[in-house]
Specification:
alpha+beta, S16 Ribosomal Protein, Chain: A, five-stranded mixed beta sheet
Length: 108
Amino acid sequence: MAVRIRMKRLGRKNRPFYRLCAIDQRSPRDGRVLEELGHYDPKCKETDARAILKGERIDHWLSVGAQPSDNAKILIKKYGTNGTHLAAQEQALARLGRNVKKNPVAAS
């Protein structure tokens, strides 16, 4: 099975919301997922607070051969485990008053 890391669209008309998911490449865009790896809200006012990713799980899927889509590759590069925008993301989340956590899964 070929696994892709790609975005699944949720939300209503003119109010998109995306989840970054590990999906079988033959599944439709909004089809059944193997695992949800984070989310992306393009309507968030703070640019660096738009994407919240589970870096450890993304690293796992990449290590077993999952291929990210073009948009997912950009988000992983910026906000993944060794992302280039992590410090700015923490500051943006603090300005919004959200909890700044390294691993959002552990808090659940």
